[in-house]
Design a protein that fits this description.
membrane, single chain, 9% helix, transmembrane, 77-stranded mixed sheet, 6-stranded antiparallel sheet, elongated, TamB_C
Amino acid sequence: MSILIRILGKLVRWLAYAIVAILLLVVAAVLVVGLVPSATGYAIDQVAKIASTPDRTIAIAAPSGLLNGNLRIGSITVSDTKGPYAKVQNLAIDWSPLSLLTGTFHADRVAADVVDFQRLPVSTAAPAPATQPASSSGFSLPIAVDVGKIALPDLRIGQAVAGQDFILAADGSVKANSSSMGLTLNASRHDVPDAKLSADIAFAPAENQLKLKTQISEPRDGMLAGLLHLPGGPAVNIDLSGEGPLSNWAGKLQAALDGKPTVAISGHHSLSADGLHHIDVKGGGDVDSLLPPTMRALFAGQTTIDLSATFDGKGKIDIQTGNLATGSAVLAASGTLDPAGNNSLNANLIGTSGPVDFRWPMEDGEVRALISRVDIALTGAAQSVKIDAKAALDSASTPQGNIGQINLSARSDAFNLNGMSGPLQLRLVVGQTAFVSPDLNRLIRAPIALTAPLQLSPDTIGFNNTTLESASIGGTVNGKYTLSSKALTGNFKLFALPGVLPDGVSDKFEGTISLEGQVAGTVPTKMTLSNLAVKSNVAEINGNVALNEQSLTTDLSGKVLDLSKLVPNAQGQADIGLKAKGPLSALGIDATVKAVNVKLAGRLLDTLDVNVTGTADPKAPQAKVQASGAIDGKPIRITADAVSKDSRTSIPSLTAEIGTNKLQGKLDLSPSFEPTGTLTFDLPDLSLLAALAGQKAEGDLKGSLDIASANGKIGLKVNANGSGIRRDDLIISKPAVALAVDDLKAFSANGSIRADTIASGANRIADLNLTFTQQGSRTDFDLKSTYDNAPLTTRGSVETAGGQTTVNLDSFAGAPRTIPVKLASPTKVVIKDGIASLNGLTLQTGGGSVTVDGTAGQALNINAKIANLPASLANVFAPTLAAEGVISGTLAVTGKATSPAVVFQTNWSGAATSQTKSAGLAPLGIKADGKFADNVVTINTNLTGQSGLALNGGGTVAIAGNKAMALKFAGNLPFDALAGQLAAQGLVMTGTAKIDMQIGGTTAAPAISGSITTDGAKLVDVRRNLTLSGLAVTVTLDGRQAVISRLSGNLTSGGSISGSGTVGITPDSGFPADIQMKFNNATYVDGTLVAATVNGTLGIKGPLMTAPMLTGNLRINKASITVPQKLPASLSEINIKHKNAPAAVNAQFKDQKPEAPRSKSTTLGIDLQLDAPSQIFVRGRGIDAELGGSITVRGTAAEPVVSGGFTMRRGRLTILSRRLDFTDTSKITFGGDLTPALNMEATSTAGSTTITVDVTGLATDPQIGFSSSPALPQDEVLAQLIFGQSMSKLSAMQIAQLADAASQLAGGRSTSLFEGLRSHLGVDDLDISTDANGQAQVGAGKYLNKRTYIELQQGASNNTKAIINLNVGRGVKLRGAAGSDGAGEAGIVYEHEY
């Protein structure tokens, strides 16, 4: 109803205007036309013209009875620039002309049948400046007004005003004179009589009286509740009342919703004897319940108002108490504001629960500001007030964009409040910007800092040293603006980054673009930019620009510094100039370009002079173009004139000669720009033309183009042919065009387009023949050609009738990349009003199909359905992809063609590629759905596979701007799914990894966060006989690095491992790592040769992709190394070749190619310390030794540097039952690489001979030597060592055994006679030795089972002995023997390895 009050107020004002106008009419009529009836209409028209303005037109129809007291007007229509917005029908005024003689307009009745207020008026003209009267004596009217009754039975308020259409009935009266005014008004709705408005106002300033009584009452779902969008549409009651003298007046506002009191506010005004006005306002309530939605957040909760202030009417305001508190904000003010005295004003605005949410509605949306805090302080004498004002906003948004992190401040230490002059320092800081317009996004980019040290006076604003800093534009501005004259003087020096320019242009600039100059003039009609200078790496421009009213004068000159930035394949510079003079509607232009010794696509442009003169008049443009020069010594001559006459524009002559290439023609444009003309061309050397455009091309083309326009139809006749055209990998051989089009719009054509070959890279169309045949209003087309060695054909027709064009596709067939594609059935494409409609366009390929329906124009509505499309089709374009499965889905495209919105859904069943197959993954199921809109892709995916493999997630990816991403994925990865890939590395792993990942940042710099965890997993390294159980791993990612917070597991052979660390994951960082592994009594058993228990740590640090470093300290508590009895001499690689292999085998090995070298090699640095002070046992082949020591490994994995070694703690060597003791000086050392150097010595005695065995040299080629004291030959030394007697005394069997021993010492496979006997007898041990007397004796032994071993011995005296050994276990053995001489023995043996 508040709107209703305003509307009725406007109606009253219009009636008052009408009454005053009528009074003027009466006086004019009496004095000028008297009582002539025909003069009434003339007088009314004159008044309507006087009352009209550029924004408001008043039309009055059918007036009568002006002077007889019964004025009747048929209608009054009020219009603005958009048309009528208000209308009054059948206006009747019953008044007394004679009452004017007493200075009173008296009317018994003012009525209108219909008053229709359709919409609010639109203002386009600038408001006239307000004029201040020389003096004012308060309230007064030129004459008294007395209207006994106002009757408006049909008052209509349109939807554009009130949100919906309303019909009201209003009546009242008005009485006013120079000293008082009285108004009564009653209104109600036709459809809801209970909805009422009543107003009784009496205002008598001279009598110091004001009476105010206004009531609004509406039932539920009333007009006011609807206008304010009150929740639930409650019943509304509002009562505003007050009465008393103005010097001591009190009023009250009360409101209730559904009968429940909601708001109560009381006010009081008093006037003291010294002329001070005092105001008190108190109250509050649920104010938000009476406000429109945009204002509710600001007044949410309980609102309290407490204001007590005094003012003198001369500018001084004293606030004793000023508090406004709501559920979301507190506004407090106190102190004095006095332009002539001392000031102490403080005001604050803060939010009670977060920032203050301020909103203000706009025509196309709303302005919204989230205000953190506002503080204002004015202190000190008026002549030098100190100002300190600050505002902090979280954000401010409009429909055009959003800015955030805003800080605004205004400070002054000495501001003259009385004269409104002095310094004022303004500073604005913006931390975030985002605009809908991409142009604004480029120009205005945070962070922004604007500092303006203003110097203010009543008539001027100085802004010297104003600075702007931002991520896109910066610089300084100096100057002064005079308010009265609108004069502006100053200078500026700005810079901009290339990113402020549109895409496609910005990438041509490097560094900053600077702009500086001086400005002077009167805003906005007369402005001058002088000493203007633009500098960049591309061009430099200098000059002046002047605007005088609607006339522009420009004189600019400059140089293009690097033509390659503007023209591809160009080298050189060019001078440019631009002069313009004249009115903006017909600006005279003179532009020049001059280039000398410029390289274009490898050719030399000797000179080029281009001059363009003309008049830029949209109604009658004129231009003259001349160009001359030479390229590769061949002349360039181009001339063209454009003239306008009788609304027609023509180019009577157009000639161009570039070397041997010639072009001639003329063109005439009708007032509707329909062209008519001819053009002939003979271009034997296209390479020259291409070079001028910075391109490389070659070929020739010759022909003509005729254009004719008549009766709204444009016809073309084209004839052209050549031997061939080539540009890069595009080749067109023998093109020939012979085409006649009678009506270009309807495409009524006859002719053909032919070419022997059109090829681009691997794509090749041969024998192209496209023919057009006109059949009445229909044009048939027929394409025959060959593509990928398969026919490519299509047939159809184009027909225009009834304002629409129909393209009939009868057939289409081809086999690109051997994929058969054909049109499933004939279809139509209907084009009408710029909209193309498709219905059931279906292409079949590979057993699947794609069907398209919908419309396409400025707005899109296209639906596509994909059914059972084989994924293997992609293999034709990417042979290594090896895609499998079937794809189905839907696609819907809507929105504008310039900014389409796409909704899609796909299902790829049986999905597999070469990557998934090489990873050992079974076929997957992949489902995806999402949309694309506003350059943002939103996607949701679901991936499932074998063994419970599942991954779900999605998010958004922007494809423009900084290409921001916000993706999230979660799922399970069973290690069984990786069984194939792990098996290739000799690994077996069970368990499941849980994945929870988020991907943010941009596509250029992604930020990955989330976690990967597994518990209870098991890893088996088959090749190394390692099993890690109870494996628990937690890896978290924070966008910068992967943190291994938990890594632990138990070795089944004993002990455990644990670890932690980080790996950097930012792009181009090289993946820096810092990982530590701890071994806790970790036991390794390879099952054959080695068993070891290790403690210590290993770490890897540094960038994994370039130079990681392996560090650590390991301590081997105990290790057992078993030397096998036999070692193979060598193993050689077997070269296997597949001959006549089946297709499956060939496919398996097709992608197995040697890995190409990496762009950056990875070098693993090493810094390891290995300590083994003792208990390194080496046993086997007669060796029983213990070693200890330490080694250090440094360098790199490719070139390790090993130092240190192992020293013999104790040890012996047994050769054929003879024992040699190692000396404690025996050592195994490392001298730089991984190959150990041996220096070992073992001694024994045989009789009086001391025998020494030396093992020296590198482990890869050890040298074994025998020596003795006294010195003997080596074979004699060996005989003494083994048999204790000279070589000459050995039997043949002993010599064979000696050879076998020598073979064993060499470490090779024995092929001696002795070994042969052992094998053929089927025994496990065969021993021939001598007794103490030098007599030979033979022993043979065999294992009956794992625990029982029996041995037989035969001596030279025919004494035979049988021995049995029974292994009880735990190192305990039972031993018994019996001889042929009746002797026997028995015993228990205990053995323990240490």
